[in-house]
């Protein structure tokens, strides 16, 4: 039986189970569309008019081996993996560039403007087992979260609880997979709660690629007239893989791996309370990111007769962000105003080997001061109108105004809601684009984006689930990319047009069976030539079923289908990567109240495919482990 036949069979089985479940009484856990709260916006993030999807990995199931797999069912999100282990995991949200999505970890922004990708976040360095929740907001996010969020934002949060508990987990598997995770939370009196998390992970080998990462996190929260939360985390990444444009394991002429050593530290403090005008909040976040990449270069090939020279690059970024905001809420609406300040200090020490060492160092410091106002109001007809505006001024005299507006209302009944959104945003050029001594361009302009979307959300009968449908269109102007020249430099080369449809489903068919899934079709092209963008499929879909056939046994099956992708590498030039389907299976058996046995099968049917040209995806791999709870 082929993987595709198996997919059809499993989908039929799931549909049959869901149909049968529809005849049963509604479960006790209804689906709600309440505003979600993220630590990046401590007053709470009322994103009901926006396209939002929240992922909460079930605590009684095995963790995925990649964060990309945790986010499989998020509509509009495609994450391209360059190899099984050690390779980058590149974010494409609604088809725009990887640096058009802002990523927060416990409220601390991870984007680094020093790197050659303009600040794209590599998700391979984030351990999925330490993520308790991920909220993905698609669409422009500048008003609420600051500039750079042309495509949207991803908010990752580590565990926190007011209940005393501790967990120890260990796993092993094929191809060098090893993982250890420990976490604990404890109340300290009536007003304090402490938590800590630590993990160690290893995967791959020195022939195809490897990844070693470690993570430590601690937090303290207090309640009272003034609510306080403080957290600190540190991650270390040691990875090796073939360079992105090299053609990977299949085509690279130079067989030496590119190595990456990265250290990230994040600190966050948040105070909030109530006063006569409503609620206030003050925050301070600090990020310290150090990365060293040693690349062997890429040999000349079909696409580039010169190839890429070897490089040794060390970058460091220190970012401080502080904010002060207040919100006044009533039954009919809310008004929020705020100020924030950000200071970034970036440095890159690089040597390029042209047969002789050529230094390519740069250093840049900039600050940004911003202010915003947001308001929403619910009318007598039940329609909620939301609007906001923001002004940002940079130290180089760059000033920009961004705005967003949205409407949300019932359609026939409260079970169905329609929504409309319109917003613009901008992204200041990265330090690399501005200051690199060989290809930098101090005259480069900010990228700007305008996005419009319309959506429907329907609560399924009895509150058993919801279905969410969104149509979107966006245009990025003055898109920044490398221009081969002459002279070669980073420049505003073209625009990016994107439009598409997204559908997402959550169905708690019974108390024992939950279905989650999404499907996305997106057309993304450069303007004015209309060329298809690399690395992005036109369509993708995923469905996951979590089933508890017995009180102590939980099974999860995931099916992922991705359409063909245009990709390119220096040895081969442009090629089309065929579509593929993959199935993953996990099982958790509670042997005792304090002991779980874990089992996973990644790529169960051993599908052979590539997410990036020349980088074979992970073959079938079995994993096993145990989890102790105290």
Structure, described:
The protein has 630 residues and is mainly beta. It has one domain: Maltoporin, Chain A (Beta Barrel), CATH 2.40.170.20. The chain is 6% helix and 60% strand. The chain contains five helices and 36 strands. The strands form six sheets. The chain has a 22-stranded antiparallel beta barrel. A five-stranded mixed β-sheet has the order 3-8-9-6-7, with no helix packed on it. β28 (539-550) and β29 form a beta hairpin. The longest helix is centred in the first third of the chain and has 19 residues, at 3-21. It is globular and about 65 Å long. The relative contact order is 0.16. Residues 6-33 have low confidence and may be disordered.
At a glance:
By secondary structure, the chain is mostly beta strands.
Q: Which helices and strands, and how do they pair?
A:
Layout: H1 3-21, E1 36-38, E2 41-45, E3 51-55, H2 67-70, E4 77-81, E5 89-93, E6 101-105, E7 108-109, E8 133-138, H3 142-145, E9 152-157, E10 165-173, E11 178-188, E12 192-205, E13 209-222, E14 226-241, H4 248-251, E15 258-275, E16 278-295, E17 311-329, E18 333-353, E19 357-359, E20 362-378, E21 384-394, E22 399-411, E23 413-427, H5 431-435, E24 447-459, E25 465-483, E26 489-508, E27 513-527, E28 539-550, E29 553-562, E30 565-569, E31 573-577, E32 580-592, E33 595-602, E34 610-612, E35 615-616, E36 621-629
Parallel strand pairs: 6-9
Antiparallel strand pairs: 1-2, 3-8, 4-5, 6-7, 8-9, 10-11, 10-36, 11-12, 12-13, 13-14, 14-15, 15-16, 16-17, 17-18, 18-19, 18-20, 20-21, 21-22, 22-23, 23-24, 24-25, 25-26, 26-27, 27-28, 28-29, 29-32, 30-31, 32-33, 33-36, 34-35
């Amino acid at each position: 039986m082929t993987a595709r036949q198996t997919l059809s069979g499993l989908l039929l089985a799931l549909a049959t189970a869901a149909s049968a479940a529809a005849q049963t009484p509604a479960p006790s856990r209804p689906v709600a569309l309440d505003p979600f709260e993220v630590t990046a916006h401590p007053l709470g993030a009322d994103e009901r008019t926006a396209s939002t999807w929240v992922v909460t990995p079930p605590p009684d199931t095995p963790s995925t081996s990649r964060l990309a797999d945790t986010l499989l069912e998020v509509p509009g999100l495609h994450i391209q993996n360059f190899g099984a282990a050690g390779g980058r995991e590149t974010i494409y949200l609604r088809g725009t560039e990887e640096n058009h999505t802002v990523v927060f970890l416990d409220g601390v922004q991870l984007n680094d403007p020093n790197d050659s990708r303009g600040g794209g976040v590599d998700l391979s360095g984030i351990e999925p087992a330490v993520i308790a929740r991920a909220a993905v907001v698609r669409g422009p996010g500048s008003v609420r979260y600051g500039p750079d969020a042309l495509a949207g934002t991803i908010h990752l949060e580590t565990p926190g609880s007011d209940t005393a508990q501790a967990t120890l987990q260990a796993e092993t598997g094929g191809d060098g997979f090893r993982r250890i995770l420990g976490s604990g939370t404890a109340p300290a009196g009536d007003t304090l709660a402490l938590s800590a998390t630590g993990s160690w992970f290893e995967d791959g080998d020195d022939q195809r690629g490897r990844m070693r990462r470690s993570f430590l996190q601690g937090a303290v929260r207090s309640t009272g007239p003034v609510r306080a939360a403080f957290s600190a985390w540190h991650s270390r990444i040691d990875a090796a893989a073939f360079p992105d444009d090299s053609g990977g394991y299949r085509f690279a002429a130079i067989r030496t791996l590119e190595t990456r050593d990265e250290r990230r530290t994040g600190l966050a403090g948040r105070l909030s309370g109530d006063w006569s005008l409503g609620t206030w909040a003050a925050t301070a976040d600090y990020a310290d990111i150090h990365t060293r990449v040693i690349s062997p270069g890429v040999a000349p090939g079909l696409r580039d007769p010169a190839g890429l020279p070897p490089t040794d690059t060390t970058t460091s970024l220190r970012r401080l962000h502080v904010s002060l905001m207040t919100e006044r809420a009533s039954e009919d609406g809310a008004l929020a105003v705020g100020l924030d300040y950000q200071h970034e200090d970036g440095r890159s020490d690089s040597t390029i080997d042209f047969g002789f060492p050529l230094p390519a160092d740069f250093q840049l410091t900039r600050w940004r001061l911003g202010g915003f106002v947001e308001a929403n109001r619910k009318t007598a007809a039940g329609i909620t109108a939301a609007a906001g505006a923001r002004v940002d001024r940079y130290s180089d005299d760059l000033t920009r105004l961004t705005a967003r507006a949205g409407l949300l209302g019932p359609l026939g009944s409260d079970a169905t809601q329609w929504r409309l959104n319109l917003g613009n945003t901008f992204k200041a050029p990265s330090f690399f684009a501005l200051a690199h001594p060989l290809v930098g361009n101090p005259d480069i302009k900010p990228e700007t984006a305008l996005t419009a979307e319309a959506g429907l959300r329907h609560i399924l009968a009895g509150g058993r689930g919801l279905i969410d449908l969104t149509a979107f269109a966006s245009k990025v102007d003055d898109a920044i990319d490398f221009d081969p020249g002459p002279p070669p430099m980073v420049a505003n080369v073209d625009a990016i047009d994107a439009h598409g449809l997204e559908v997402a489903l959550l169905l708690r068919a019974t108390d024992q069976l939950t279905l989650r899934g999404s499907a996305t079709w997106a057309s993304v092209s450069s303007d004015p030539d209309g060329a298809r963008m690399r690395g992005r499929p036109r369509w993708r879909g995923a469905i996951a079923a979590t089933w508890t056939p017995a009180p102590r046994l939980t099974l999860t099956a995931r099916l992922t289908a991705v359409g063909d992708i245009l990709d390119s590498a220096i040895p081969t030039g442009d090629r089309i990567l065929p579509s593929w389907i993959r199935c993953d299976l996990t099982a958790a058996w509670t042997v005792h109240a304090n002991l779980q046995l874990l089992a996973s099968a990644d790529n169960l049917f051993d599908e052979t495919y590539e997410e990036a040209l020349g980088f074979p995806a992970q073959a079938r791999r079995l994993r096993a482990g145990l989890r102790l709870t105290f």
